[in-house]
Amino acid sequence: MIERFDTGPRMSEMTIYHGVAYLAGQVPEDTSADIVGQTEQVLQAIDDLLRLAPTDKRHILRAEIFLADMADFAGMNQAWDKWVPEGATPARATVQAKLANPAWKIEIVVTAAVP
């Protein structure tokens, strides 16, 4: 059975199937924040969704990070390194991409195991 969370007409924020949670791309709400602030907002949104699964960041299998500008790589990593659990770092890719909203500096997609 597929479980869907925060389902709208276009997408769900998260789906779960066979013990794996697939999160939609998470973006910041406050676009006036710098890259560290926007990253912290996105990571909090990920924590909130994972809690619904229920799982947590220790069970993230893969993270895909989209940055509007690679000049923000160091700032993003500053927030990421504080958040990611030592010894439970997921597979990760970071790329530069033109995001749907020009005010967004970051979007993160994660896939996590649901124990």
Automatic annotation (TrEMBL):
Pfam families with a match to the protein in the record: Ribonuc_L-PSP
Protein name in the entry: Endoribonuclease
Domain of life the protein comes from: Bacteria
Coiled coil: none
PROSITE patterns: UPF0076
Family to which the UniProt record says this protein belongs: Belongs to the RutC family.
Matching InterPro entries: RidA_CS, RutC-like_sf, YjgF/YER057c/UK114, YoaB-like
